Amino acid sequence: MSNTTSANPSKPNKKRKTNPNPETNFLISLQSCIKSKDLATAISLYESALSLNFRLSLHHFNALLYLCSNSATDPSLKDSALRHGFRVFDQMLSNNVIPNEALVTSVARLAASKNDSDYAFELIKRMNNEFNVVPRLRTYDPALFCFCENLEAQKAYEEQEITALLKVSAGTGRVEKVYQYLQKLRSTVRCVNEETGKIIEDWFSGQKVNGVSCDLGLVKNAVLKNGGGWHGLGWIGQGKWVVKRGSVDESGKCCSCGNQLACVDIDDAETERFAQSVAALAMEQEVKANFSESQDWLEKNANYEAIVHYTFVKGNLKLQMPPPYSSVIQESDKGSWHLPILFKGSSSQTWLCITRSNVCESRDEAQ
């Protein structure tokens, strides 16, 4: 009987311990850098990995760009984070590594950190076209926030320019230019700042501008065509201006003159373009069937004069009525003006009410 060796069932074979490969160690180190927010060490490790010809995966690039985008919010690290972040992204593309949505979001955040919303939008479009990366709502967030911030800064700058021109025109008695710059303000900003409000208030308080005689129906049609809130036909009415500071109640009624402020909409051409854009966008989304139903509903109820806002909540159509008035600069069909003034460092709002004296007298007699 031959002697044979057999495995002892009470002592199972032990698996050999294998050391992680260099790429895995690099990823573990990057994750540690993320936890400690150590950008410098992460970049140093990345440089070493390149010199050693590591095979870098999507996970490596994701970790690096996530850390860079987070570090870009720190003023002391911003320049380094932006410089290295875009360099890492370019290296990833040259390595033919296909990005995912999380990585695209990180790069979009980097673009937003340097106030380049155009790059962020183009990046999302490019990644979708070239790599079929489907963006989520968070992917657009950095670009949208950046765009809004830049837009507000641009509006503030434009208001300063228009205010300066308005002040010069007011000082030299160029009444038609004053009207033009008021319209420019109306189309550029929703509210005026305190300085602009004071210039407008002073000018109207010392002026008696006789306006043109216009057919009331013509003026009302112009207001309707423009979406409400302005006509743009020039000064209307006769007599001195009455300038007051006051408030507007919840229904949109001016507490100074009693006029009802309008709920301003976009004009006819803009409405058509907007409707086409929304329809085209929504038809591409998962809510296609629900949106088609809402379009059918709107077509059947197109004769209603009231404007309704509609949104989708969990696939269901929700209707919400707009507010009774818009908190924007308004010009009425009677020639009066209402300008909301926003004070610096305060959320409170004061309205500048500018009407003709004969209009005020007629109102007082009616009461």
TrEMBL record:
Coiled coil: none annotated. InterPro entries: PROP1-like_PPR_dom (IPR033443), TPR-like_helical_dom_sf (IPR011990). One of its GO terms (biological process) is tRNA 5'-leader removal. One of its GO terms (molecular function) is ribonuclease P activity. Residues 1-23 are annotated as: Disordered. Keywords: Repeat. It comes from the Eukaryota. The keyword Transmembrane does not apply. Residues 14-208 form the PROP1-like PPR domain. PANTHER family: PROTEINACEOUS RNASE P 2, PTHR13547. This is PROP1-like PPR domain-containing protein.
